[in-house]
Specification:
- By secondary structure, this protein is α+β, with helices and mostly antiparallel strands.
- The protein has one domain.
- The protein has a 3-stranded mixed β-sheet.
- Helix 1 crosses helix 2.
Length: about 80
């Protein structure tokens, strides 16, 4: 399993699927908190996270990023537009 360096505090656990490698699951909100703790604004943290972390593919063991429902203030979750 691959891990994101410096983000151990954001680990939620391990994600498992039948026939697939286990993946480290991270809290997106906690990742953003850690980036902001290092001095980034929310917008800077989000941009960095989306491009360098969520947008990075490191093979079949690339970590999973979990967007918690309570971090969104819109009426729809981001994936609901894709599903509707």
């Amino acid at each position: 399993m691959l891990k994101a360096n410096g983000f151990d505090e954001a680990i939620l656990g391990v994600a498992c699927r039948c026939g697939q490698p286990d993946l480290v699951a991270y809290s997106v909100s906690k990742c953003l908190e850690l980036l902001m703790k290092d001095g980034a604004t929310y917008e800077e943290a989000l941009e960095y996270f989306e491009f360098n972390m969520a947008g990075a593919w490191s093979g079949d063991e690339t970590p999973i990023w979990v967007y918690e429902r309570d971090m969104w203030h819109e009426d729809k979750m981001p994936w609901e537009e894709v599903l509707s």
